[in-house]
Design a protein that fits this description.
- This protein has helices spanning 26-35, 37-40, 47-62, 65-83, 103-117, 146-165, and strands at residues 6-10, 20-24, 96-99, 122-124, 135-138.
- It is an alpha+beta fold.
- It is globular, with a radius of gyration of 20 Å.
């Protein structure tokens, strides 16, 4: 196959709205619309969301500032995690998977980050990932500044040390 037949994308996070899209031939789009359960059991984007997505796309076609800032924030968070010895999966994405490897500890860290520090980091546990590869999913944005990065790294470092030193499974408090 030497040609793209479908381009698929999301309108979340980087575009600041929700939903997604496919671009393909009219026949292929009609086929997906008719037979894909994701389309059958959902509704079209509300007009305000579609307008927001269009405005975001127009802006990001002209501006590289947001992408450059996000790359810089991601690099800073990765460097700070490296500096305190917190393992994270290398990848070219803006998503930083922090490898916990234990579902209870993963949920515990996520819960305490939110409860005690006001930081929401999504825990990713089985069955989304294989057992033993549980992780925290950090998604820095271009708007996260030095104070937010410091708060995250400091809180995560403290909780990481607590979990590493724990001899038995932790229960969320």
């Amino acid at each position: 196959m030497d040609r793209l037949t479908v381009i698929e994308g999301t309108l979340g996070k980087a575009f600041g709205v929700v939903g997604g899209y496919i671009a393909a031939s009219a026949a292929l789009v009609d086929f997906v619309r008719s037979f894909a359960s994701g389309f059958i059991f959902t509704t079209a984007l509300p007009p305000a969301v579609a307008a927001g997505a269009a405005a975001s796309i127009r802006h990001l076609k002209e501006s590289g500032t947001e992408r450059a800032r996000q790359r810089a924030v991601v690099a800073e968070v990765r460097a700070r995690l490296d500096a305190i010895g917190i393992p994270h999966m290398a990848n070219p994405s803006h998503i930083i998977p922090v490898m916990v490897g234990d579902p209870v500890k993963c949920k515990y860290i996520s819960d305490l980050l939110l409860r005690d520090h006001g930081i929401y980091i999504q825990p990713i546990n089985h069955p989304t990932v294989p057992k033993g590869t549980e992780r925290l999913r950090i998604t820095p944005s271009p708007d996260h500044g030095p104070a937010e990065i410091e708060a995250l790294v400091s809180a995560l470092g403290t909780l990481w040390a607590q979990c590493r030193l724990a001899r038995r499974p932790l229960a969320a408090q």
